[in-house]
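sorry to bug you again but im stuck and you know this stuff better than me. theres a chain ive been looking at and ive put its sequence and its fold in token form underneath. id like you to explain what the token line says about the fold, in plain words if possible. anything you notice is useful, everything is just below.
___
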Amino acid sequence: MTDKKQIIIPMDRLGVKNIQNNPMLTIKTINNILDNNVEIRWLTRENKLITENYPEGHFFQSGAFLVEGNSDTIDQMKEKNIYYDITESQIGENLKPINIALYNGKGTAEFCIEPIVEVLNLSSFKYRLLSDKDIRDGLIDEFDVLLVPGGPDAGESYYLGLGDKGYTNIKNYVYNKGHYFGLCAGAYLALKPQSDKSKYWLELVDATDDCELDYWRTGTGFVRVKILDSDTPITSGLVAGQINTIDMIYWEGPAMKVLSDKVKIIAKYSDFIASGSLNEYPKWDLLDNFLAIKSIKEWYNILTRDRFEKYLDDKVAILEASVNNNKVVLISPHAEFGNIGISPRKKSQAFQLITNVFFYLSLNKKTI
């Protein structure tokens, strides 16, 4: 095999599944290879490539990986049952290893930390838990991405441990050093308030929530999110065509409203699916997803169809913005909680949304 040969590893969407039998194992393998200083390219847009299996040319969706085609790597693909092909194309953007700071302060919730740690471990991204003191002491500057998970409220409790100094350090970090990735309460935290009296918003992006921090208005349930930007790498492997949706667990996240064209809308809420309400209870097996089961059977604040239509329908669910060339990505629903049945939790399609964000942010990694 010549040096020009590349192993192409597609991550194409097949309905609610992936062409790879185990997508997170595939991504873990990619990260492990990347850690060994092997060049890996990532397709950030759909491309037609000539391959050994398709000498006439074949379209590969964005999200495919191209790895140096040596025999050791091919043996890994075969051993782990990873689907691949061979091409001579040298396209795509070079990936870089990335270090993630996962905020784990007073305002976070254990049931939100544990699932994101599971996704990070399944996909082999490097991370470290940072406390309030760590961020107040400036340790955040050692990392490429600050990942802020969900918490017990809409984000105001984060101020309890971080205080003015912690908030200032995060703002300076995003402006000067690295990227911000917020999920649910972590997404609330980065927004702007309607009132200039609020102390509890970072004001990183030109977007808000019309109901301020009143997350009680919604509840928890299963929702469908419509992807509007099929060109962004964030949705790689999750789109095929112009209209694409993904089903996720919603748990009182922000109904985001964009205030200017400085913010890019990635996806909006489009449909209510089910919840713990008597008349809207899911009629299918939720399999092993304990968080999906918990949201339906145990949580007291229940999302209803009426609440969805009043507060969430057509509101922004995923957005992206830039702060001095650093990225801010906010996801309102809990992608890290996994699917709503369909397949085993560890094969959740929503997990790929999270790993896509990390790969995307690595493309914009600065030398710190």
